UniProtKB/TrEMBL annotation, chain A:
NCBIfam families referenced in this protein's UniProt entry, alphabetically: phos_prot_SiaC
SiaC family regulatory phosphoprotein domain location: 6-122
InterPro entries (UniProt xref): SiaC
Lineage: superkingdom: Bacteria
Name of the molecule in the record: SiaC family regulatory phosphoprotein domain-containing protein
UniProtKB/TrEMBL annotation, chain B:
Annotated Gene3D superfamilies: 3.30.70.270
Organism of provenance: Marinomonas spartinae
Coiled coil: 76-103
Cofactor: Mg(2+)
Name listed for the protein in its UniProt record: diguanylate cyclase
Enzyme Commission (EC) number: 2.7.7.65
Listed Pfam families: GGDEF (PF00990)
Keywords assigned by UniProt, alphabetized: Coiled coil
Length: 124, 263
């Protein structure tokens, strides 16, 4: 199936999704003016992957700053992953942070709160 | 009168099942009445079931609406909480950045940018009607290079920190002290007469000259040269500063550890 690539800018992260590997990768800051439009394709990719494939899904995230609409997008994705997880699907999140910036880890903890699937916050 | 329906039902059944009554008009009427009654009961039963299931559906719908509402509320609260944290972090970072952009990290005194801002404010907000005006003093630590060469840069840094603190303790009630760069400091004294400024800077010079910094059993003593200039009506920030700079140069050439007022 199709892969996805959205090039990053100063205010939006690089997004790479690989259907074959079942990995969605995001890296950078996220404060675009049009979060919902920007992420529409990515959100659709996740929904399709979860619905059409049976393989595990892993999110590899190196996100620093997120504006409010980006937070909503990420939470929607995590909620959808949680629903599939409750039905027995293998899903996981690896959230990477720079050890010099503990604040990113604290925020990732907030996201993790309601997720029961494996959600690792990894310093590097 | 209370009717026992099951007794009545039994009685009717018995009458309807008795063959010799079959042709009696009353029996026929009773049979018809019985059938109508049965039909009504069935109808009532169906209505009740239908009504129950509608009620059930509405209850489920309400429950799912309230579940969805709760879910959205929870999501909203979480988004707000996370967003607030991002904003708080940004605000803290901003404050840190602002601080690092305005404060000299070594002496923790205002840096050149900050002291220039203060000077510009003092120049703009001076009151020429007052007899006492704006005075600046440029300070340079004498033979600072020798301190560095003799004792090392670490001691040099310690001297800058100690003298910065010592001078600021004297000056901060009257004006501001900032690190101008290297071993140079700038003093801004709003509303000071030349005499008052000279007296204060003399106190600073004397304080530095009699101060000894002890580090690792070594005693380091220094002095400062000071160039003073008083704001004149035709002055700009640049001319005010360059007169102080010239006066400092003169103080250096006159043997250091002294004050000169720029003319």
């Amino acid at each position: 199936m199709k892969d996805l690539r959205i090039d990053g800018t100063i205010s939006s992260p690089t997004v790479i999704a690989s259907w074959q590997e079942g990995v969605l990768y995001m890296e950078g800051d996220s404060y675009p003016e049009n979060s919902y439009e920007l992420y529409a394709e990515m959100v659709a990719w996740v929904s399709q992957y979860l619905a059409q494939s049976t393989s595990p899904l892993t999110l590899e995230l190196s996100l620093l700053y997120l504006n409010t609409s980006s937070i909503k997008v990420m939470m929607d994705i995590f909620d959808e992953m949680e629903e599939y997880f409750q039905q027995g699907r293998q899903v996981s999140v690896n959230w990477y942070f720079d050890v010099d910036n503990e604040r990113v880890a604290e925020l990732a903890e907030e996201f993790k709160e309601d997720c029961h699937f494996p959600f690792q916050i990894i310093g590097k | 009168m209370k009717i026992n329906f099951s007794e009545l039902e039994k009685e009717i059944q018995t009458i309807l099942n008795t063959p010799q009554y079959n042709d009696h008009p009353a029996s026929r009427a009773l049979r018809q009445l019985w059938e109508v009654n049965q039909e009504q009961w069935n109808r009532m039963d169906r209505l009740t079931r239908l009504s129950d299931s509608y009620q059930d559906m509405m209850m489920r719908r309400e429950k799912s609406l309230s579940e969805r509402f709760d879910k959205h509320l929870r999501q909203l609260e979480k988004i707000t909480r996370i967003s607030d944290r991002y904003q708080r972090n940004l605000r803290q970072l901003n404050l840190e950045l602002e601080r690092t952009s305005l404060i000299d990290p070594l002496t923790e005194l205002p840096n050149r940018r900050f002291i220039m801002k203060r000077l510009s404010y003092a120049v703009e907000h001076r009151d020429d009607a007052l007899s006492e005006g704006l005075v600046v003093a440029m300070i340079d630590i004498d033979y600072f290079k020798k301190v560095n060469d003799q004792f090392g840069h670490q001691v040099g840094d310690d001297v800058l920190v100690s003298l910065g603190k010592l001078m600021n303790d004297i000056i901060h009630h009257y004006g501001s002290l900032g690190r101008w760069g290297g071993e140079e400091f700038l003093v801004i004294l709003p509303q000071h007469s030349q005499e008052k400024a000279i007296a204060l800077m003399e106190k600073v010079r004397d304080g530095v000259a009699s101060y000894h910094l002890s580090i690792d059993h070594k005693s380091v003593s220094t002095s400062i040269s000071v160039g003073i200039s008083c704001f004149r009506a035709e002055d700009s920030m640049d001319t005010l500063l360059s007169r102080a700079d010239d006066a400092l140069y003169l103080a250096k050439s006159k043997g250091r550890n002294c004050l000169i007022v720029g003319s």
